[in-house]
UniProtKB/TrEMBL annotation:
Keywords: Cell membrane, Membrane, Transmembrane, Transmembrane helix
Record localization: Cell membrane
Family affiliation: Belongs to the ABC-4 integral membrane protein family. LolC/E subfamily.
Record has Cell membrane as a keyword: yes
InterPro entries: ABC3_permease_C, Lipoprotein-release_system
Region called Disordered, residue ranges: 1-22
Stretches of the chain forming a coiled coil according to its record: none
Organism domain of life: Bacteria
UniProt-recorded name of the protein: ABC3 transporter permease C-terminal domain-containing protein
Length: 877
């Protein structure tokens, strides 16, 4: 063996018979290298075998690591799957029960419906790839409004089968749709199975008769289709039935075309098939929806990453505890000749294996979580943006991405700890070194890093103009805040120890400093969850109050109506004859664009404009210039998104007519909430100058009496249906319901993050109490009974949790301020007055203390039931 080692310094020689640059070794040196490689592989194998045997005897340690990884990956994959499916739906969205349209033929500006003769002309011209559609609102027997879509179901199914893109759907739809009943003109509605089970469990759905809404409701048979067909909350009927239920005979909302766009447009224009009765537009492949919903999905991603970080804290805490318990075992392996780099490699392989197992389990659970979250997201997107999600799908790439991200984060966090353990001298590792001083030094360094990061973010925030940048800076703040916690609690407990006289209680407070190190990661995770919860409660509570106050000023009329365009003048005439009607207000609305994005161009009577516009800023001579058509009002989201200010010119696309026409300037910016499209308000004089449609789109009325009397009068006139009328109470109710739905998904993720942190605290307490058996046994040997030991340990840990909650209150307020005044303002364009919800904060603190009490009491009771003298015997060994 000595001869072999003496040859290891021999330099390799170039073999003349090989290519240049190929190195050869002497036989002796080659044998030695093979022996070394074999020994290294054997050491690695044996080290891994020893680790596996250790985990068989201490499964709690491996379980704690896996728990953190599983929880982190579960929430990450759950939200990622939901978001990816939503974005895919925008670009692949199809007509209901059909394929994706390439072109849409829509009514001219100012018109609500198409004449179905346009559709017949297209079919007669040989354009068979066309689908007629009508949309509208219907009211059920309980007064609830539902979106009804009617289309030629036979054409839709034929188009889908012709596309050949979804064989599963082709084979599954036909058996479920009762074609014979449709041919027999039976009254049948199609719904998703989940919606049908909710609203029509007996297979029947009752709608008000549009011709006699005060009479008996119409009974309709419901056929439930699998949720995979993506109907969402929509109700589908054959077009003839839908036209009857909507009371719009021979009318269409639009016509969908499915052939190649350029050739279709050429054919239609050459044959003059539209006769200036409609407009043809090309689909944007979902880009507009992606732009509108980008901030919503970014919010979900931010919450999932927060939960991911909390999960990694738990995993890292488990790794550190496992290494602490295996410290003697690692020393013994090094003493037996295992090289340090091989021991480090074994630890890395062990972590990689745990990451693989945890990621696979978390991936499976994440897909299940996505199935639970998707209906909530689908309802929010459908109500806010009119987007309908397609059936969910998943990809193996998500598992690889989650695994790679988890492994990278785990190695980044654990490698310094691994190197610290494997590079220390063996004598020092055996000795009982002072761990507290080392931890205090680490915590002091973390505190300095956090202060530098927070100061940097404070300097950068005033210059952040995009919500993506603000969200990134806020992410740094979220990471920095937990780094402040260990040293802060250490100094507070050090100060508190001086307040108690010598004795058991002084010892309890003084020993609390010893617990901060082992519990610091769990407390960091808890602080993150509490801070996020407090900040989101601040945002949601503030926005709810702001929205209610805004609705009070915005809704000045008692009844709002959107009848058919040919009925508006008759309704105005009817209202003007009613003595109790104190005011009639009109509104003109058309869709427009600004820099390629859709906006709403609105004009109202001057009184309504003044009363309903909650102005954020304005010029001194606003109303005189507004009436003259020289100034306009724009909503706050438009102003923030495009960087517009008072006095800037505003080009109203696509209605920039003559070059001699002076473009209006921005005279005021008004608050606007919950509207995904920006609004521009102009005076009637400018509306007429731009030659926009003169027919009002909606009207409103103030009524001195019971508003139900006016509604009944209008229904009896047959000029308007119940689905086309909204009173103040209903609008407020729907607005608040939509608001709660918008934030419900975020609050669910917030609650899940808190649950993850609570689980992490439970595992940390369990591991810590198990590790403290020997110190507790010493106190027991000194005469302190088990009841006092339990009380002392319980108070120690609850004190740390309470201090964490107290730190979370100001940090949560800081994050709430950033969410309201930076991220939400820049992402949605909503100025929100920040309000303090002290009862909500108190509830969060109580929940945290209750959760921690359970997390502490259960493992404490388990461990102290055992004979404590055995712990002293194990310590001696």
């Amino acid at each position: 063996m000595n001869d072999k080692r003496s040859n290891q310094d021999n330099k390799p020689q170039l073999d003349a018979g090989t290519n240049l640059g190929t190195i050869s070794c002497t036989p002796t040196e080659l044998d030695y290298r093979l022996e070394q490689d074999s020994a290294s592989g054997y050491s690695l194998y044996n080290s891994l075998a020893v680790f596996a045997a250790h985990y068989r005897h201490a499964p709690l340690q491996a379980g704690a690591i896996l728990l953190g990884i599983i929880l982190a990956v579960t929430l990450l994959i759950g939200v990622k799957s939901t978001n990816e499916n939503a974005v895919r739906s925008y670009s692949e969205a199809t007509e209901l029960l059909s394929q994706r349209a390439s072109l849409l033929i829509t009514p001219n500006t100012g018109e609500q419906y198409l004449d179905e003769q346009v559709y017949f002309r297209l079919r007669q011209a040989g354009i068979s790839q066309a689908l007629a559609v009508i949309n509208g609102l219907v009211v059920d027997s309980e007064g609830r409004r539902w979106q009804l879509q009617g289309s030629d179901l036979f054409a839709a199914i034929n188009l889908q089968q012709h596309s050949g893109t979804n064989q599963k759907t082709d084979s599954a739809i036909n058996p479920h749709i009762p074609l014979a009943k449709l041919l027999g003109a039976k009254n049948i509605l199609l719904m998703s199975q989940s919606l049908a089970d909710k609203v029509a469990p007996d297979g029947l759905f009752y709608l008000q008769d549009p011709l006699n809404e005060q009479g008996s409701p119409i009974s309709l048979e419901v056929v439930g289709l699998d949720d995979e067909f993506g109907l969402g909350n929509a109700i589908v009927a054959d077009i003839s039935l839908a036209q009857s239920l909507l009371n719009h005979s021979q009318k269409l909302s639009y016509i969908a075309l499915f052939d190649e766009p350029s050739s279709l447009i050429t054919q239609i224009n050459q044959a003059q098939l539209l006769l200036q009765q409609a407009t043809i537009t090309e689909q944007d492949q979902g880009q507009a929806l992606q732009e509108l919903t980008r901030s919503f999905h970014l919010n979900l991603n931010a919450m999932s990453m927060l939960a991911f970080v909390v999960g990694l804290f738990i995993a890292y805490n488990g790794v550190r505890y496992s290494l602490m318990k295996r410290q003697k075992l690692l020393v013994q392996l090094l003493q037996l000749g295992v090289q340090k780099h091989m021991l480090l490699l074994a630890l890395v392989v062990e972590l990689s294996f745990l990451v693989f197992v945890g990621s696979v389990v978390g991936f499976i659970l994440g897909l299940q979580l996505s199935l639970w979250l998707q209906p909530m997201v689908a309802m929010t997107l459908e109500q806010l943006y009119g987007a309908r999600l397609m059936p969910g799908s998943w990809q193996w790439q998500w598992l690889v991405q989650a695994m790679a991200l988890t492994l990278f984060a785990g190695l980044l966090a654990c490698l310094p700890l691994y190197r610290q353990l494997t590079n220390q001298p063996l004598a020092r590792m055996i000795a009982k070194s002072n761990q507290v001083s080392h931890l205090v030094k680490t915590h002091r360094m973390q505190f300095m890093i956090a202060c530098i990061a927070l100061i940097g973010c404070a300097l950068a925030f005033p210059f952040a103009k995009q919500y993506q940048v603000s969200l990134g800076l806020m992410g740094i703040v979220i990471i920095a805040i937990p780094l402040l916690l260990p040293l802060t609690i250490y100094r507070i407990s050090e100060w508190m120890a001086n307040l108690f006289p010598t004795g058991l209680w002084h010892y309890m407070i003084a020993e609390t400093k010893e617990l901060i190190g082992p519990l610091s990661l769990a407390m960091m995770a808890m602080l993150l969850a509490l801070t996020a919860n407090i900040s989101m409660n601040t945002l949601v509570g503030s926005f709810e109050i702001t929205l209610k106050n805004w609705l009070e000023s915005r809704l000045h009329a008692d009844l709002y109506m959107r009848p058919a365009s040919d009925k508006i003048l008759e309704i105005q005439d009817l209202l003007s004859k009613q003595e109790k009607v104190s005011g009639i207000y009109t509104q003109w609305t058309i869709a427009s664009t600004y820099q390629g994005m859709p906006i709403e161009l609105v004009s109202r009577d001057l009184y309504s404009t003044k009363v309903t516009s909650s102005l954020k800023s304005q010029t001194d001579n606003l109303w005189s210039e507004f009436v003259a058509g020289k100034q306009i009002l724009i909503s706050e989201p438009i102003a923030i998104k495009y960087g517009l200010n008072i006095g800037d010119s505003f080009n109203i696309y696509p209605f920039n007519h003559a070059s001699t026409h002076q473009l209006p300037t921005i005279g005021a910016i008004f608050f606007d909430y919950g509207n995904p499209k920006g609004q521009v308000v102009i005076d009637r004089s400018l509306w007429q100058q731009l030659q926009l449609p003169q027919q009002p789109k909606s009207i409103a009325a103030s009524y001195q009496g019971d508003i139900g009397q006016l509604e009944s009068l209008l229904l009896e006139s047959k000029l308007i249906s119940n689905a086309q009328m909204y009173n103040q109470a209903k609008i407020k109710q729907q607005a608040i319901a939509m608001f709660k739905q918008t934030f419900s998904i975020t609050m669910v993720l917030n609650s899940l993050t808190l649950i993850v942190a609570a689980i992490g605290l439970f595992s940390a307490c369990l591991m810590l109490i198990q590790a403290r058996q020997a110190p507790l046994a010493k106190l027991y040997a000194l005469g302190i009974n088990k009841r006092e030991l339990r009380l002392m340990t319980f108070v120690q840990m609850q004190l740390i949790v309470l201090l964490t909650c107290l730190v979370a209150l100001p940090t949560g307020a800081v994050l709430g301020y950033l969410l309201i005044n930076k991220v939400t303002l820049q992402a949605f364009g909503w100025s929100i007055a920040m309000l303090w919800d002290w009862p909500a904060y108190f509830r969060v603190v109580v929940i945290a203390l209750t959760t921690s009490a359970i997390a502490i009491a259960i493992p404490l009771y388990w461990q102290t039931r055992k004979p404590l003298i055995s712990s002293l015997q194990q310590e001696a060994l």
